[in-house]
Specification:
The protein is α/β, with parallel strands linked by helices. 28% of the residues lie in helices and 17% in strands. It has two domains: 4-16 and 36-146 and 246-281, Periplasmic binding protein-like II (D-Maltodextrin-Binding Protein, domain 2), CATH 3.40.190; 148-239, Periplasmic binding protein-like II (D-Maltodextrin-Binding Protein, domain 2, 3-Layer(aba) Sandwich).
C-alpha cells in the first residue's frame, strides 16, 4: 500500500459532493437518511460502562482487507491515518473509549451487510446506506457522501467523453454488489451489459488489460486509482445517481449501540470535527467534470 507521503506527492484529491452514490446495493426507492437515523440519546447514555459491546470495555471495529487510501493508510486501520480510520477513532473517543481500547477485525465487504449476528460493534468500509441493507442491518447517521466517477485509460476514446450520452456504447467494468453497478445500469444505461467482477482488484486489472473500456467507482476511489493503481488512467467525469447515497457505520440489526454511534457522528458533525477529518484526509482541491 502507498503511504500518505506517496499519496501527497501524487496529489490524491477527492471532490466531496452533495449527492452521492458509493459502494452500495439498491433495494427500493425509499430513502434511509440522516433524519431517520439521528440518535435520540445523550452523552450520559453513551459511555463504555453503559454500552453493550461485543467485548466488555472494548470497541470492536470492522473493515475489509486490504484497506485502501484515502480511507486507510498503509493497509493499517490501527494507525488512525486515513479518513475512515480517523472517523472510527473519533467515534470511539466521543463514546469514551481510549485508543488502546479499540480493536480492529477484518470483515469482507459483502459479508458485512449479510443478516445475522456480528462479531464487531460497527463496521466502516465505504458502505452505502440502502433500504435493502437496512432490512438486514442497522446504519448510523451518515458520515460521508460521494459521487460516482468514470475512469478510463488516457489514450482511450472514452477518455474524451463529456456527457453520459457519449458513454452509451462503452464497455464498463464494475464490482458486484455496489451502487456503482446500479449507477451504470440505471443512469448511463449502456447498450451492452457491463462486466461484473468480484472485487475491486479485478476491476482495476480489467481496466489495465483493456478488457473493459472504462470502470465506474466512487469519486474518492477514482482519485486513488488514477494516482496510484493506474497512472495511465484518467477521470473522465463524475455523476450522481437517483436518490443519492450515504455512507454509514454498519451495525447488527437491532444493535443497542446504534443510537449512540449515531449520536457520536451527529456530535462530530455539529462540532465541525467531522469536516476537519474530511479536509485532512479527503482533499477538495481537485475536481472532476460533471457528466450530464
Amino acid at each position: 500500500m502507498s503511504s500518505l507521503r506517496h499519496l501527497s506527492a501524487l496529489t490524491l484529491a477527492v471532490l466531496v459532493a452533495l449527492f452521492a452514490v458509493a459502494c452500495g446495493d439498491d433495494g427500493d426507492d425509499a430513502d434511509v437518511g440522516a433524519e431517520e437515523t439521528t440518535a435520540a440519546v445523550s452523552a450520559e447514555d453513551c459511555t463504555p460502562e453503559k454500552l453493550e459491546t461485543v467485548k466488555p470495555g472494548v470497541l470492536t471495529v470492522a473493515t475489509d482487507s486490504p484497506a485502501y487510501p484515502p480511507y486507510f493508510i498503509d493497509d493499517d486501520p490501527t494507525n488512525g491515518k486515513g479518513f475512515e480510520s480517523a472517523v472510527a477513532y473519533a467515534i470511539a473517543e466521543k463514546l469514551g473509549f481510549a485508543r488502546e481500547d479499540v480493536e480492529w477485525t477484518v470483515v469482507p465487504f459483502n459479508a458485512s451487510f449479510a443478516p445475522g449476528p456480528k462479531d464487531f460493534d460497527f463496521d466502516v468500509n465505504q458502505i452505502s446506506i440502502t433500504p435493502k441493507r437496512a432490512k438486514q442491518v442497522d446504519f448510523s447517521s451518515p458520515y460521508y457522501v460521494a459521487n460516482q466517477a468514470v475512469v478510463a485509460l488516457k489514450d482511450s476514446p472514452v477518455a474524451n467523453a463529456s456527457s453520459l450520452e457519449e458513454l452509451k456504447d462503452t464497455k464498463f467494468g464494475v464490482q458486484i454488489g455496489t451502487t456503482s453497478l446500479d449507477a451504470v445500469e440505471q443512469v448511463i444505461q449502456p447498450s451492452q451489459e457491463p462486466s461484473v467482477f468480484d472485487n475491486s482488484n479485478d476491476v482495476v486489472t480489467a481496466l489495465k488489460q483493456e478488457q473493459v473500456e472504462a470502470v465506474v467507482v466512487d469519486v474518492p476511489t477514482a482519485f486513488y486509482l488514477t494516482a496510484v493503481q493506474v497512472p495511465k488512467g484518467k477521470i473522465v467525469g463524475q455523476f450522481s445517481a437517483p436518490g443519492g447515497d450515504e455512507w454509514g457505520a454498519l451495525l447488527e440489526k437491532g444493535s443497542p449501540l446504534t443510537d449512540c454511534v449515531s449520536w457520536a457522528i451527529d456530535s462530530l458533525r455539529e462540532s465541525g470535527e467531522l469536516a476537519e477529518i474530511e479536509r485532512e484526509w479527503i482533499s477538495e482541491k481537485a475536481n472532476a467534470p460533471v457528466l450530464e
